[in-house]
Specification:
It is a single chain. With 158 residues, the protein is of the alpha+beta class. The protein contains 3 helices and 8 strands. The longest helix has 16 residues.
Length: 158
């Protein structure tokens, strides 16, 4: 049986709570309210850096990750594009990343399923953004893990 800390992991509790909110417990927004939420998200995610850590598999070792987000824009139909510089391990690439954005009430959740990112491979991820923080799960081929961190202004942003 896994240690109790596995069941009390704050990231897991937060993700499960968000899932339940998204299944009917969220606040229904009018079209104008949703547009305002999306605009606030677009502004809050432009010219920022996601600085954090990720795990691989069941390992407890935290590895640094860094995503510089120049801007995000909504294409339509729930699809957004993140203009991102992705840095982890020996990788350092700048690419547009198309993602589906879902909303758990007033909380944006990025949904990426088997998307090929040039220079990196194919990824699946679910990432929740809230209160200048992010938390999520990821998978690349047969390997996956957790990741989390802070959303901070990019000092090199225009």
């Amino acid at each position: 049986m896994p240690p109790c800390s596995t069941f009390l992991n704050p990231s897991l509790i937060f993700l499960l709570s968000a899932a339940f909110v998204g299944c009917g417990g969220g606040d229904p927004a009018t079209e104008a309210e949703q547009e305002a939420r999306e605009e606030a998200f677009r502004q809050s995610m432009s010219g920022v850096v996601l600085e954090g850590f990720f795990t691989v598999g069941d390992g407890a070792e935290l590895r640094k990750e860094r995503y510089e987000i120049a801007k995000v824009s909504k294409l339509g139909g729930g699809i957004w594009v993140f203009q991102a510089r992705i840095q982890y391990g020996s990788h350092d690439v700048t690419v547009p990343v198309p993602v589906r954005m879902e909303w758990a009430g007033n909380t944006p959740v990025l949904s990426l399923t088997e998307v090929a990112i040039p220079g990196l491979g194919t990824f699946t991820a679910r990432v929740l953004f809230y209160d200048e923080q992010y938390v999520g799960v990821w998978r690349h081929g047969e390997v996956g893990g957790l990741h989390f961190g802070r959303i901070v202004p990019d000092p090199n942003s225009e």
